[in-house]
Amino acid sequence: MGTLVVYSEDSTEHRYIICQDTESDSYFLTVDERLYKEDGRLFEGSFGEMHDKLVDLKKAESLKTF
How large is the C-alpha radius of gyration of the chain? Predict the structure, then answer.
């Protein structure tokens, strides 16, 4: 898998990075350099979906539920 970092953002507790798989053109998210997974599967999709998930994770972080 060829990977391209397309967006990164730091919060007070975590570093979020949205990457693109250059072979499939899908995007995925890393949190603190670890792949973000849901239900044991890599969470991947469009850039917009990854950005929305990043926003949700940051909201959860501010509520101390993440």
Answer: 11
In this prediction the pTM is 0.88
Residues 6-54: pLDDT tens digits?
Answer: 999 998 889 999 999 999 989 999 999 999 999 999 999 999 999 999 9
8 Å CB contact between 22 and 8: no
Q: What values do phi and psi take at 7, rounded to 5?
A: -160, 140
Q: CA dist 48 to 13, 24, 44, Å?
A: 23, 16, 11
Q: What pLDDT is recorded for position 52?
A: 97
Measured between alpha carbons, how far is 12 from 26 in angstroms, rounded to an integer? 28
